[in-house]
Amino acid sequence: AESLDLGFRDDFGYKIVGGKQVEIEEFPYQVAIEGGSVLFICGGSIISPNWVLTAAHCVYKENISWLRVRAGSSKFRKEGRLHKVKTIIWHYLYEPSFNDYDVGLILVKQKFQNLPNIRPIPLSTVPAVPGDSVTAAGWGYLEEQRRHRPSKLMAVNLTVVDWSLCRQQYEFLTPRQMCVMGIKKDTCYGDSGGAIVSNGKQVGIVSTGFRCAGHGLPGIYVNITVVGPWI
């Protein structure tokens, strides 16, 4: 495993492969984290009136003065409501090398309005188990080569993989991480920080993995139930 180019999803996120277009009203907690007027950085999820949950690598050492959070829009970098950022926090044990403890928080200056297209998602206190169906959403690239982004929000259904089996593929896997995959379906570059959801509750955060769908390897996600006490 040490000789593999792991293709980490740490260069501002990952994508949705093999998914479908959806409306923000179906995923009202989904937000886009943007840099200034030119850069899409990551996804995130609204978890309270003024807090967004995302991956640590999305906000690690970022300058908050240029960060914006776009809520309430299905469209890529258009419409919705832009929120300035007051504070960013990443887990004090975050390890950039392998994205361990890859969890971060954003405090916005103006509270999110509670609307049909802007609404927080509860965090699960019960861990997802192998075989559970989960859903991810985002505006990431549509293929590994990073040629095309979607014009609208995309979503994909995936399946939780047994942790022990996943560790046979990723020897660096930690208890803070969980694995999810699909057949020719995946999150990819641009989706980092977004939520994976089961039964209406967030169970994980898009974090890292080996390239994208089609390689027969699962993606790696932050396990919400393990890092929940810090959140």
Automatic annotation (TrEMBL):
SMART domains: Tryp_SPc. PROSITE patterns: TRYPSIN_DOM, TRYPSIN_HIS, TRYPSIN_SER. The keyword RNA-binding does not apply. GO terms for biological process: proteolysis. The keyword Disulfide bond applies. It comes from the Eukaryota. This is Peptidase S1 domain-containing protein. It comes from Clastoptera arizonana. The lineage of its organism: Eukaryota, Metazoa, Ecdysozoa, Arthropoda, Hexapoda.
